[in-house]
Design brief:
Elements (H helix, E strand, L loop, with lengths): L1 H24 L16 H8 L5 E7 L8 H17 L4 E6 L5 H9 L5 E7 L2 E7 L1 E7 L2 E5 L8 H13 L5 E5 L21 H8 L3 E5 L9 E6 L8 H12 L3 E5 L3 E4 L4 E4 L3 H9 L6 E5 L2 E10 L2 E15 L1 E2 L12 E2 L15 E8 L4 E5 L15 H4 L6 E8 L1 E2 L14 E2 L3 E5 L14 H14 L3 H11 L9 H41 L1
Parallel strand pairs: 1-2, 7-8, 7-9, 9-10, 10-23
Antiparallel strand pairs: 1-5, 3-4, 5-6, 11-12, 13-19, 14-15, 15-17, 16-18, 18-20, 20-23, 21-22
Length: 526
């Protein structure tokens, strides 16, 4: 009998050991959250599976983290464990606390990870504590880092982006069009130039791509995967137009952020932009209406108003700053995005799309839209102060961004001065946003939704769709459903009265129960 018990114990232990050994190479978990945001995406799993060599991640984390960020340690450990499980042995990680050892501090500093100062209240005392919360990635002879993990939301995207970047043989190339050379002003190394209108967008894109500049005076490098065209207010030279055309004909993809109307909020004046770029568009079969879209769902501008002896800034809804939360849910670029901000945008005319082209809309204005058209482009603020914009704008949604694909024929096909051009292509795409302010400093670049859109669009045009999947899971926006005034009043009074009525009913039920109990006790002792 004893012998059988020992045999059972040995078999049980063998099973436990076997299961643990199998679990080292086979990893699974159940994630019931919407979008499965607590487990790795297919793109992240594939990124670590594709590693050709050993990747070491050093997590420099202090042990004495303040309470508000203490959970970050556990979250980082969990997510790195998942990466390790799917890496087929090519990724390993270790946690290091460099707080009390000078050699570890120097090691962290070498990996561009520095301590952050945090205020901590302990024993009724406020103290400043230096903590480490960074990741260093070491692959072959390359080193990348996440210096400070301030927020675990979006961490998977950051880690996967670095894994793809550090393990890539060469980064894909993105070119930025600039009409004039910027005056170089000496700055601290690593910081964008102050006079760079596209510093934020360029910096974010450069984290995943090799970014260059072009003024189109020379042909674009054939290795460039996509061109970001930041808009013009005048015509291009014929050579600039030719180089733009031939980049497209050679299979390059182009993202246009281009105004149709030049508007100035300070002077409250607007005029049409006359550029040969629109001749190029029309030849391809692309048309942007000579108008400005208006939308009841819009941003605000501050207007100075006199209130007695005081002059105060009052926010006024301005319909030419449409807020976009109406997107094409079928398209990977925008399906999980919302709350983007446009500034003086125009409408894409889909009725004039070329017969050989396909058009896929991306961004729409709301159900309460309108427009102002030539020749009178009235954008005065006074027209919209203290007005019911939903009553003013009753047009259906207008398209302000979309993608063209199909057959593009060269604009220079019949031009004898350019005999060596590529005549046509079916391998290119054009993405148009009818607002150049969408990506500018001090304008649209300050809106997170705009940045997410640009990054998704660049990934899509550079054939890096896998990054979009991860970023979209972190940027999904769920605005509250807008209710009518009557419905809001009903809900308000329900919230006010229901708790009181519920307490009264519970009091009555309790009182009746007490009377019944007293009656029973009275009958027992009579």
């Amino acid at each position: 009998m004893k012998k059988n018990i020992w045999i059972d114990i040995v078999i049980f232990l063998a099973i436990i050991i076997f299961v643990n050994l199998v679990s080292l190479s086979i990893f699974t978990r159940i994630d019931l959250s919407k979008g499965k945001i607590y487990s790795l995406s297919k793109s992240s799993k594939q990124a670590v599976k594709d590693l050709e060599d050993r990747l070491v991640i050093k997590a420099y984390f202090s042990k004495n983290l303040p309470g508000e960020v203490a959970d970050a340690h556990r979250f980082v450990k969990d997510i790195l464990s998942e990466y390790q499980a799917y890496s087929r042995g090519r990724l390993r990680f270790e946690f290091i606390d460099p707080s009390d050892e000078e050699n570890l501090k120097k090691e962290a500093q070498k990996c561009q990870i520095f301590p952050a100062s945090m205020r901590v209240i302990e024993n009724d005392k406020l103290e400043i504590r230096e903590v480490y919360m960074g990741l260093a990635f070491l692959y072959k002879d390359k080193t990348e880092s996440l210096p400070l993990i301030q927020n675990t939301r979006g961490l998977e995207y950051d880690i996967t982006k670095i894994i793809k970047k550090i393990s890539a043989i060469c980064l894909k190339k993105i070119a930025f069009f600039e009409l004039e050379k910027e005056e170089e002003i000496p700055q601290m190394p690593g910081y964008p130039q102050k006079n760079d209108e596209f510093a934020t967008v360029r910096q974010y894109i450069s984290e995943s791509y090799e970014v260059s500049k072009t003024d189109l005076s020379k042909p674009i490098n054939v290795e460039v995967d996509a061109l970001v065209f930041t808009g013009v207010e005048d015509s291009l030279s014929m050579y600039q137009l030719y180089n733009l055309d031939q980049f497209l004909m050679g299979g390059g993809n182009i993202l246009f952020f281009q105004d149709r109307i030049k508007a100035n909020l300070q002077t409250q004046q607007a005029e049409s932009i006359n550029s040969n770029l629109f001749d190029l568009f029309r030849y391809y079969g692309i048309s942007i209406k000579n108008n400005l879209v208006a939308d009841a769902v819009c941003g605000h501008v501050q207007v100075q108003q006199q209130r007695g002896i005081f002059r105060m800034a009052t926010p006024v809804s301005y319909p030419f700053f449409p807020v976009i939360n109406n997107v094409n849910k079928e398209n990977l670029i925008v399906k999980n995005l919302a709350y983007m901000q446009l500034i003086f945008a125009s409408e894409i005319d889909t009725t004039k799309t070329g017969k050989d082209l396909e058009f896929e809309p991306l961004l729409y204005t709301s159900e309460n839209s309108g427009e102002v058209t030539m020749p009178r482009l009235d954008i005065s603020l006074q027209n919209y102060m203290n007005r019911n914009l939903k009553g003013m704008f009753i047009d259906p949604p207008k398209i302000v961004a979309g993608i063209y694909s199909g057959l593009f024929k060269s604009y220079f096909i019949n031009n004898s001065e350019f005999m060596d051009m590529i005549p046509e292509t079916t391998n290119s795409k054009i993405l148009i946003v009818t607002d150049s302010d969408f990506i500018k400093e001090g304008a649209g670049a300050g809106v997170k939704g705009n940045l997410d859109f640009v990054l998704n669009a660049v990934d899509y045009m550079a054939s890096e769709e896998s990054l979009i999947e991860i970023r979209s899971r972190e940027t999904e926006f769920k605005p509250l459903k807008e209710l009518s005034s009557g419905t809001r009043k009903v809900i308000k009074w329900i919230n006010i009265l229901f708790p009181s009525i519920l307490l009264i009913i519970m009091g009555i039920l309790h009182y009746r129960g007490e009377l019944k109990r007293r009656k029973i006790l009275g009958e027992l002792y009579e």
